[in-house]
Design brief:
single chain; extended
Length: 87
């Protein structure tokens, strides 16, 4: 019986599953920095004034302690359920 040969990506993912959440976060930060040269201004489009206003409003709510937070699992479940409903 032959064992399945994992691709390098699959091997990395399997190894990453063994890390703690903090270690996974550190790995992700370091991985994303591998090819970042510090100048991504060509890749990013400036946000519209409306979006900047919305971001500022949300930051203000968080800082004032009035923001409402939801568990990620609840948000994902709601999204999945909404995709099942007819439009």
């Amino acid at each position: 019986m032959n064992a399945a040969v994992l691709s390098p990506v699959d091997s990395l993912l399997e190894a990453a599953k063994l890390l703690t959440g903090r270690e996974q976060g550190e790995f992700l930060d370091r991985f994303l920095d591998l090819n970042y040269d510090g100048d991504d201004s060509d890749d990013e489009q400036p946000l519209s004034p409306e979006w900047m206003t919305e971001i500022d409003r949300r930051v203000d709510e968080v800082e004032a302690g009035t923001a409402t937070f939801r568990e990620w699992q609840d948000v994902m479940q709601e999204a999945r359920e909404s995709l099942k409903r007819p439009a």
